[in-house]
Amino acid sequence: MRKKLALVGVGGVVGTLLLASPAAAQDELSADVVQTALDNVWVLVAAVLVIFMQAGFALLEAGGTRAKNVGNIVMKNLMDFMVGVIAFFAVGFALAFGEGNDIIGWKGFFLEGGDFDFGTITLPTYFVFQVAFAATAATITSGAMAERTKFRSYLIYSAAITAFIYPVVVHWVWGGGWLSQRETPFVDFAGSTIVHGVGGWAALMGAFFLGPRLGKYGADGKARAILGHSTPFVVLGTLILLVGWYGFNPGSQLAADPVIGKIALTTTLAAAAGAVTSMILEWIKTGKPQVSMTCNGVIAGLVAITAGCAAVDAWAALLIGAVAGIVVVLSVSFFDKVKIDDPIAAISVHGVAGAWGTIAVGLVGAEALVGENYGLFLGGGADLLVTQIIGVVSVFVFVVVTAGALFAALKYTIGLRVSEEEEIMGLDAHEHGLTGYADFVLHEGQVGDEVAEPVLT
Question: Which of 66, 67, 61, 75 is nearest to 439 (CA)?
Fold first, then answer.
């Protein structure tokens, strides 16, 4: 027998299996023990990929906004995760997964006394995976509120969404709540609505209560472009998000089994289709294949497929992604017209595309994957479609009411928006006492009538 390598914990199980003789491995390890080890390793790897998405969101938002706010942007994305971990550990996880009623859980605060059971996945592993999702929901809202939000108010919002707003929605589906108990259960495999819808609709309320950035709308009421300062950041952030999505979607299988390959396939196809259709539509509209809108299409495709990545066939994934790419272009134009200023299209990419992807499961969900309640277009009837619509609308109403109340309270108490002077000079200097780049200065050039623009010397 070959010499064994002494390792610790899960690594020891896998290392012993690989280095021991087949007979010894069979004697010492059962198939169940090995599968449990592999499941936990895979879910932890997936959690790391999802956590790394915070870097993608930070780069995307920073690149899509002005250099005078880049420090504020990355600070918000950093603290979304740090504050979110504590809030979700103390309160949110129990509300989401603890024993309770059909609406909310109420046992297991600080991960104690909750009698949790996640199959082969241990409680610590499951918490790390789920807190990554909670932080993602919070971070989505950051982009819509960029360049004009008080940092202290944003921290309060970030804690509130990870401690209460997001966990309640999670409980409705993944925690055994009312949407999962319908005769035809709601299908949202990895969170098109549960994660991205919550973040997107909270973004809508944040942008509404803040109002547009200075100079966004001219005297004629038409939207003006306020260009971001780094296209490479936008593209790099998008690619990091794409990589992170392979933890988001395949990781939600919560097991190291062959199904994760199929989920990765549908995820990839939808992203590609969203990129192509958004690029083409924007090309037709403006005469140019715009970089930022193409990136929006990639992410819209990913958001849309997240609900059905395990429940649709490959051709349907292409369809869902392609429609998402078109929807996001139209949605961005709509919100510009109604004067909801969303600097990085978070509402359209996450809220609107997430709603489309969730409803699409009721149209093209495959019988072999969803079961007897499959998609309307495949002959399964309208039961699943009705449930999907009920779920999307319910989450929209709940988030609009709760996030709206939160932002209204912040606006009329400690304040939600910085002063005009602070907005013109940049949030880096006034909120954090720094500049994002060493040689940063302001010049007299303007966007609109008031706003000085930054340059790098």
Answer: 67
